[in-house]
Design goal:
This protein is of the alpha+beta class. Helices cover 51% and strands 12% of the residues. Strands 1-2 form a two-stranded antiparallel ribbon.
Protein backbone atom coordinates (compact mmCIF):
# COMPACT_ATOMS: atom_id res chain seq x y z
CA UNK A 1 0.00 0.00 0.00
CA UNK A 2 2.95 2.32 0.54
CA UNK A 3 4.39 1.67 -2.92
CA UNK A 4 4.50 4.54 -5.36
CA UNK A 5 1.32 4.79 -7.40
CA UNK A 6 2.33 7.61 -9.68
CA UNK A 7 2.13 11.39 -9.91
CA UNK A 8 -0.86 13.59 -9.14
CA UNK A 9 -1.97 16.65 -11.12
CA UNK A 10 0.74 18.79 -9.53
CA UNK A 11 3.43 16.26 -10.49
CA UNK A 12 3.96 15.06 -6.89
CA UNK A 13 4.62 11.40 -6.25
CA UNK A 14 1.86 9.68 -4.24
CA UNK A 15 1.49 6.21 -2.75
CA UNK A 16 -1.24 3.68 -3.52
CA UNK A 17 -2.83 4.34 -0.09
CA UNK A 18 -3.06 8.10 -0.77
CA UNK A 19 -4.51 7.48 -4.24
CA UNK A 20 -7.23 5.25 -2.73
CA UNK A 21 -8.13 7.83 -0.09
CA UNK A 22 -8.40 10.58 -2.70
CA UNK A 23 -10.66 8.42 -4.88
CA UNK A 24 -13.01 7.69 -1.95
CA UNK A 25 -13.14 11.40 -1.03
CA UNK A 26 -13.97 12.28 -4.62
CA UNK A 27 -16.85 9.77 -4.73
CA UNK A 28 -18.25 11.00 -1.39
CA UNK A 29 -18.11 14.63 -2.56
CA UNK A 30 -19.96 13.69 -5.77
CA UNK A 31 -22.61 11.86 -3.72
CA UNK A 32 -23.14 14.85 -1.38
CA UNK A 33 -23.56 17.25 -4.32
CA UNK A 34 -26.12 14.91 -5.87
CA UNK A 35 -28.17 14.84 -2.66
CA UNK A 36 -28.01 18.64 -2.33
CA UNK A 37 -29.20 19.00 -5.93
CA UNK A 38 -32.18 16.72 -5.30
CA UNK A 39 -33.20 18.76 -2.25
CA UNK A 40 -33.35 21.94 -4.32
CA UNK A 41 -35.85 20.54 -6.84
CA UNK A 42 -38.99 22.62 -7.24
CA UNK A 43 -42.21 21.21 -5.83
CA UNK A 44 -44.19 22.41 -8.86
CA UNK A 45 -43.26 19.19 -10.67
CA UNK A 46 -44.65 17.07 -7.85
CA UNK A 47 -47.71 19.09 -6.94
CA UNK A 48 -49.97 16.03 -7.11
CA UNK A 49 -47.84 14.30 -4.43
CA UNK A 50 -48.51 17.02 -1.79
CA UNK A 51 -51.52 16.20 0.40
CA UNK A 52 -54.22 18.82 0.73
CA UNK A 53 -53.94 20.64 4.06
CA UNK A 54 -56.55 19.88 6.67
CA UNK A 55 -58.72 22.86 7.62
CA UNK A 56 -57.82 23.09 11.28
CA UNK A 57 -60.64 25.51 12.02
CA UNK A 58 -63.36 23.07 10.94
CA UNK A 59 -62.35 20.21 13.25
CA UNK A 60 -65.53 19.41 15.15
CA UNK A 61 -63.75 17.28 17.75
CA UNK A 62 -62.08 20.29 19.36
CA UNK A 63 -63.36 23.48 20.92
CA UNK A 64 -62.18 26.20 18.57
CA UNK A 65 -64.30 29.05 19.93
CA UNK A 66 -61.27 31.10 20.98
CA UNK A 67 -59.55 30.50 17.66
CA UNK A 68 -62.70 31.51 15.75
CA UNK A 69 -62.96 34.71 17.82
CA UNK A 70 -59.29 35.47 17.17
CA UNK A 71 -59.68 34.93 13.43
CA UNK A 72 -62.75 37.13 13.39
CA UNK A 73 -60.84 39.94 15.08
CA UNK A 74 -57.91 39.57 12.67
CA UNK A 75 -60.16 40.01 9.60
CA UNK A 76 -58.11 37.64 7.42
CA UNK A 77 -58.83 37.37 3.71
CA UNK A 78 -59.57 34.02 2.08
CA UNK A 79 -56.05 33.76 0.67
CA UNK A 80 -54.48 34.61 4.04
CA UNK A 81 -56.67 32.03 5.76
CA UNK A 82 -55.53 29.37 3.28
CA UNK A 83 -51.91 30.28 3.94
CA UNK A 84 -52.49 30.12 7.70
CA UNK A 85 -54.05 26.65 7.39
CA UNK A 86 -50.98 25.44 5.50
CA UNK A 87 -48.64 26.89 8.14
CA UNK A 88 -50.58 25.22 10.95
CA UNK A 89 -50.14 21.91 9.14
CA UNK A 90 -46.35 22.54 9.27
CA UNK A 91 -45.96 22.79 5.50
CA UNK A 92 -42.77 24.32 4.16
CA UNK A 93 -42.76 27.54 2.20
CA UNK A 94 -42.12 25.76 -1.10
CA UNK A 95 -44.94 23.30 -0.37
CA UNK A 96 -47.36 26.15 0.37
CA UNK A 97 -46.37 27.87 -2.85
CA UNK A 98 -47.02 24.67 -4.82
CA UNK A 99 -50.33 24.01 -3.07
CA UNK A 100 -51.77 27.51 -3.50
CA UNK A 101 -50.25 28.15 -6.91
CA UNK A 102 -48.29 31.24 -5.89
CA UNK A 103 -44.62 32.18 -5.68
CA UNK A 104 -42.45 31.86 -2.59
CA UNK A 105 -42.35 35.66 -2.33
CA UNK A 106 -46.16 35.63 -2.29
CA UNK A 107 -46.11 33.20 0.65
CA UNK A 108 -43.65 35.43 2.49
CA UNK A 109 -45.85 38.48 1.90
CA UNK A 110 -48.98 36.69 3.15
CA UNK A 111 -47.18 35.54 6.30
CA UNK A 112 -46.07 39.12 6.95
CA UNK A 113 -49.65 40.35 6.56
CA UNK A 114 -50.90 37.72 9.02
CA UNK A 115 -48.24 38.74 11.58
CA UNK A 116 -49.24 42.38 11.25
CA UNK A 117 -52.90 41.58 11.84
CA UNK A 118 -52.15 39.33 14.79
CA UNK A 119 -51.55 42.07 17.34
CA UNK A 120 -49.35 41.06 20.28
CA UNK A 121 -49.27 43.34 23.32
CA UNK A 122 -46.44 44.02 25.76
CA UNK A 123 -47.80 45.17 29.08
CA UNK A 124 -45.75 47.55 31.23
CA UNK A 125 -46.57 49.20 34.54
CA UNK A 126 -45.62 52.61 33.15
CA UNK A 127 -43.79 53.70 30.01
CA UNK A 128 -40.73 54.69 32.06
CA UNK A 129 -40.34 51.00 32.97
CA UNK A 130 -39.86 50.25 29.26
CA UNK A 131 -37.39 53.00 28.40
CA UNK A 132 -36.27 56.39 29.72
CA UNK A 133 -34.61 57.57 26.54
CA UNK A 134 -36.91 58.93 23.84
CA UNK A 135 -34.53 57.96 21.03
CA UNK A 136 -34.24 54.35 22.23
CA UNK A 137 -38.00 54.32 22.80
CA UNK A 138 -38.62 55.33 19.19
CA UNK A 139 -36.29 52.60 17.89
CA UNK A 140 -37.86 49.89 20.08
CA UNK A 141 -41.39 51.01 19.26
CA UNK A 142 -40.65 50.95 15.52
CA UNK A 143 -39.13 47.48 15.76
CA UNK A 144 -42.13 46.16 17.70
CA UNK A 145 -44.60 47.79 15.34
CA UNK A 146 -42.95 46.15 12.33
CA UNK A 147 -43.55 42.79 14.02
CA UNK A 148 -47.16 43.54 14.94
CA UNK A 149 -46.53 44.17 18.65
CA UNK A 150 -48.10 47.01 20.63
CA UNK A 151 -47.20 48.47 24.02
CA UNK A 152 -49.86 48.85 26.73
CA UNK A 153 -49.32 50.88 29.92
CA UNK A 154 -51.21 49.75 33.03
CA UNK A 155 -51.10 53.15 34.80
CA UNK A 156 -51.30 55.45 31.77
CA UNK A 157 -54.43 55.31 29.63
CA UNK A 158 -53.11 56.36 26.23
CA UNK A 159 -55.73 56.35 23.45
CA UNK A 160 -54.90 55.28 19.89
CA UNK A 161 -55.67 58.74 18.50
CA UNK A 162 -53.58 61.72 17.37
CA UNK A 163 -53.93 63.07 20.91
CA UNK A 164 -52.45 59.78 22.17
CA UNK A 165 -49.37 60.32 20.02
CA UNK A 166 -48.88 63.75 21.61
CA UNK A 167 -49.40 62.32 25.11
CA UNK A 168 -46.83 59.58 24.48
CA UNK A 169 -44.28 62.15 23.32
CA UNK A 170 -44.82 64.24 26.47
CA UNK A 171 -44.50 61.19 28.74
CA UNK A 172 -41.33 60.02 27.00
CA UNK A 173 -39.78 63.49 27.34
CA UNK A 174 -40.68 63.67 31.05
CA UNK A 175 -39.28 60.19 31.64
CA UNK A 176 -35.97 61.10 30.02
CA UNK A 177 -35.83 64.35 32.03
CA UNK A 178 -36.41 62.42 35.27
CA UNK A 179 -33.72 59.85 34.38
CA UNK A 180 -31.08 62.45 33.47
CA UNK A 181 -31.87 64.61 36.51
CA UNK A 182 -31.61 61.56 38.80
CA UNK A 183 -28.26 60.64 37.22
CA UNK A 184 -26.99 64.20 37.75
CA UNK A 185 -28.02 64.19 41.43
CA UNK A 186 -26.46 60.78 42.00
CA UNK A 187 -23.13 61.82 40.47
CA UNK A 188 -23.18 65.03 42.52
CA UNK A 189 -23.81 63.08 45.72
CA UNK A 190 -20.99 60.61 45.02
CA UNK A 191 -18.61 63.47 44.26
CA UNK A 192 -19.45 65.18 47.56
CA UNK A 193 -18.86 61.88 49.35
CA UNK A 194 -15.41 61.60 47.78
CA UNK A 195 -14.58 65.22 48.66
CA UNK A 196 -15.40 64.45 52.30
CA UNK A 197 -13.09 61.43 52.17
CA UNK A 198 -15.86 58.91 52.89
CA UNK A 199 -16.22 55.44 51.43
CA UNK A 200 -18.76 55.16 48.57
CA UNK A 201 -19.68 51.53 49.17
CA UNK A 202 -19.17 48.33 47.23
CA UNK A 203 -16.46 45.65 47.54
CA UNK A 204 -13.35 46.83 49.34
CA UNK A 205 -9.93 46.15 47.82
CA UNK A 206 -7.52 43.66 49.34
CA UNK A 207 -5.39 45.41 51.94
CA UNK A 208 -8.16 47.70 53.16
CA UNK A 209 -11.13 47.51 55.49
CA UNK A 210 -14.16 49.68 56.19
CA UNK A 211 -14.59 51.31 59.58
CA UNK A 212 -17.55 53.38 60.76
CA UNK A 213 -16.94 56.66 62.52
CA UNK A 214 -19.44 58.97 64.15
CA UNK A 215 -19.07 62.48 62.81
CA UNK A 216 -21.92 64.75 63.83
CA UNK A 217 -25.35 63.12 63.86
CA UNK A 218 -24.81 60.30 61.35
CA UNK A 219 -22.07 57.64 61.24
CA UNK A 220 -19.88 57.67 58.13
CA UNK A 221 -17.83 54.93 56.49
CA UNK A 222 -14.08 55.38 56.20
CA UNK A 223 -11.36 53.28 54.58
CA UNK A 224 -8.59 52.01 56.85
CA UNK A 225 -5.57 49.77 56.36
CA UNK A 226 -6.08 46.07 57.09
CA UNK A 227 -3.11 45.18 59.31
CA UNK A 228 -3.21 41.49 58.31
CA UNK A 229 -3.46 42.01 54.55
CA UNK A 230 -1.21 45.04 54.05
CA UNK A 231 2.11 43.15 54.59
CA UNK A 232 1.03 40.50 52.07
CA UNK A 233 0.17 43.20 49.54
CA UNK A 234 3.52 44.92 50.05
CA UNK A 235 5.30 41.58 49.59
CA UNK A 236 3.49 41.04 46.27
CA UNK A 237 4.57 44.44 44.93
CA UNK A 238 8.17 44.01 46.10
CA UNK A 239 8.44 40.51 44.63
CA UNK A 240 7.10 41.63 41.26
CA UNK A 241 9.35 44.72 41.23
CA UNK A 242 12.33 42.43 41.95
CA UNK A 243 11.63 40.50 38.75
CA UNK A 244 9.47 37.59 39.90
CA UNK A 245 6.77 36.32 37.57
CA UNK A 246 3.13 36.45 38.73
CA UNK A 247 2.66 32.63 38.55
CA UNK A 248 5.71 32.24 40.80
CA UNK A 249 4.26 34.74 43.28
CA UNK A 250 0.96 32.84 43.30
CA UNK A 251 2.82 29.58 43.91
CA UNK A 252 4.82 31.07 46.82
CA UNK A 253 1.68 32.43 48.49
CA UNK A 254 -0.06 29.09 48.06
CA UNK A 255 2.91 27.23 49.59
CA UNK A 256 2.79 29.55 52.60
CA UNK A 257 -0.95 28.98 52.99
CA UNK A 258 -1.82 32.66 52.44
CA UNK A 259 -5.34 33.12 51.09
CA UNK A 260 -7.15 35.97 49.37
CA UNK A 261 -9.93 36.33 51.93
CA UNK A 262 -10.63 32.63 52.00
CA UNK A 263 -9.86 31.93 48.34
CA UNK A 264 -6.52 31.08 46.74
CA UNK A 265 -4.65 33.85 44.96
CA UNK A 266 -4.81 33.66 41.16
CA UNK A 267 -2.84 35.25 38.35
CA UNK A 268 -5.76 37.52 37.51
CA UNK A 269 -6.24 38.69 41.10
CA UNK A 270 -2.53 39.52 41.46
CA UNK A 271 -2.50 41.29 38.08
CA UNK A 272 -5.53 43.35 39.16
CA UNK A 273 -3.83 44.40 42.42
CA UNK A 274 -0.65 45.50 40.65
CA UNK A 275 -2.64 48.01 38.58
CA UNK A 276 -4.49 49.72 41.45
CA UNK A 277 -3.04 53.20 41.96
CA UNK A 278 -5.26 53.68 45.01
CA UNK A 279 -2.72 51.62 47.01
CA UNK A 280 -0.46 54.70 46.85
CA UNK A 281 -3.21 56.83 48.41
CA UNK A 282 -4.22 58.39 45.08
CA UNK A 283 -7.68 57.74 43.64
CA UNK A 284 -8.60 59.17 40.21
CA UNK A 285 -12.10 59.05 38.75
CA UNK A 286 -13.89 61.16 36.11
CA UNK A 287 -10.79 63.31 35.65
CA UNK A 288 -10.56 64.24 39.36
CA UNK A 289 -7.89 63.05 41.79
CA UNK A 290 -8.58 62.43 45.50
CA UNK A 291 -5.79 61.80 48.02
CA UNK A 292 -7.69 61.47 51.30
CA UNK A 293 -9.97 58.46 50.71
CA UNK A 294 -7.55 55.51 50.65
CA UNK A 295 -4.55 55.39 53.03
CA UNK A 296 -1.23 54.67 51.32
CA UNK A 297 0.13 51.12 51.58
CA UNK A 298 2.56 51.03 48.64
CA UNK A 299 5.25 53.73 48.16
CA UNK A 300 4.80 55.67 44.94
CA UNK A 301 8.34 54.86 43.79
CA UNK A 302 7.64 51.14 44.12
CA UNK A 303 4.34 51.47 42.30
CA UNK A 304 6.00 53.28 39.39
CA UNK A 305 8.53 50.44 39.01
CA UNK A 306 5.69 47.90 39.01
CA UNK A 307 3.64 49.93 36.53
CA UNK A 308 6.54 50.13 34.05
CA UNK A 309 6.99 46.37 34.18
CA UNK A 310 3.25 45.72 33.82
CA UNK A 311 3.05 48.07 30.82
CA UNK A 312 6.09 46.43 29.25
CA UNK A 313 4.50 42.99 29.54
Amino acid sequence: MDDIYGKDRKGKLISIRTACFRKVDSELLHFRRKIAHNRQLEFNHNKHDIPDPRDCFEDKTEDNAKADKLLEDMHLTESELQTLNCCINKMKRSEIAAELGITIHGVRYRKLRIKQKYAIYIGVYKLDRFSRNKYEMAIHRKHLKDNGIKILSAKENIPETPEGVLLESLLEGMNQYYSEELSQKTKRGLRETRIKGNYMGGPINYGYKVVHETTGEQPVAKVAVNEDEAPVLLHIFEAYAAGKRIPDIVRDLDDKGIKNRGNPFTVNSIYFMLQQEKYTGTYTIHGETFTHIYPAIIPKELFQIVRKRVDAN
